[in-house]
Amino acid sequence: MQKKERQKLSKKHRFIWQSKTGTQKCVQTGRCFRQSSCIRQSRSAWIFFLLPSVAGVLIFVLLPFLDVIRRSFLTAVTEEWTGFHNYELIFANQAFRLAVRNTIRFTLVCLPLLIGIGLFVSVQLSRLKNVQFIKSCFLFPMAMPAATVVLIWKMIFSRQGFLNGGLAGLGLLSEGAFPDYMGTRASFWVLVFSYIWKNLGYTIVLWLAGIFAVSEGLTEAARVDGATQRQCFWYVIFPNLRGTLYTITVLSFLNSFKVFREAYLVAGSYPHESMYLLQHLFNNWFVNLELDKMAASAVCIGLVLFAVILLLQKLWDSDEKG
């Protein structure tokens, strides 16, 4: 009888069968082990999957940042303890204040424009039937090398560029009054345009993914109740896009600190003051080996970024509960 039961269990479970004593026995090896130990091992298996990524973050992110915090209280060469002297120096530095002001202005201008334009374009594209090819075209700017992008900006916005040539052809500019867009306050808006042009593609793709994830039954039910197309969007689709909005906001906020490469290649280490960002300041401090100032400013910026992300997360959680 026991032999028949063992055969039935072995057919259902190829590797184990349950015995009367509450243990499990492997059919292949004949070794017995308790069911509770198997459950504990399966519950702790996730540790081995997370361990490589956690170790990488700890070694390459957290430990270096802790060393940066330590260096922010020391001198750059002799590593003598200076307390908060480095922090006093950076807040009294005129270049640091200018870079912070321009970076905040750039972020406050670019984020609403990028999110709003991306949402508007994605809503229009969602009404089309075949949008896969169009989505690929919008992602094309992200695949372009930075050197190519810089060459395009120089060809368009330089004094003898295509923009001045087109305006002169329309009679809006005289031949001797060609402005240099990268050497005036207009350089800030050139930087804004380049940021939106490069990051608009992934924003549209994320918005489209969120729009297509909304059930069509909700919009159809709203239309049956007499809702217009605009009302269907604002009262049915848009409330279901809060998760997408949070993701796009965080990614766009972080990417706004990565615009230095194009600005540096276009205008160099010391561009016009309207587009002098924190990345320019860090690059100049690094060249001059002012590592103590870099460490102090990096700690301040890291704390600000962390606080902003926590604030966005709190706003998102409050909307979810509400």
Q: How would you explain this protein's 3D organization?
A:
By secondary structure, the chain is mostly helical. The protein folds into two domains: 1-34, no CATH class; 93-321, MetI-like fold (Orthogonal Bundle). It has 16 helices and three strands. The protein has helices at residues 2-12, 35-43, 45-71, 85-92, 94-126, 132-138, 140-143, 146-157, 162-169, 186-213, 216-224, 229-237, 242-255, 260-267, 278-287, 291-321, and strands at residues 16-18, 23-26, 32-34. Strands 1-2-3 form a three-stranded antiparallel β-sheet. Helix 3 (45-71) packs across helix 16, helix 4 packs across helix 16 (291-321) and helix 13 (242-255) packs antiparallel against helix 16 (291-321). The radius of gyration is 29 Å and the shape is flat. Mean pLDDT is 79; it is low at 12-33.
* Form type: flat
Number of strands: 3
Name of the CATH architecture of the largest domain: Orthogonal Bundle
What's the total helix number? 16
Helix/strand-derived category reads mainly alpha
What is the H/E order? HEEEHHHHHHHHHHHHHHH
pLDDT below 50 for ≥5 consecutive residues: which ranges?
A: 12-33
What oligomeric assembly is this protein in? single chain
Give the amount of beta strand, in percent.
under 5%
How would you state the average pLDDT, rounded?
79
The first-level CATH class name of the largest domain: Mainly Alpha
Q: Helical content, roughly?
A: over 70%
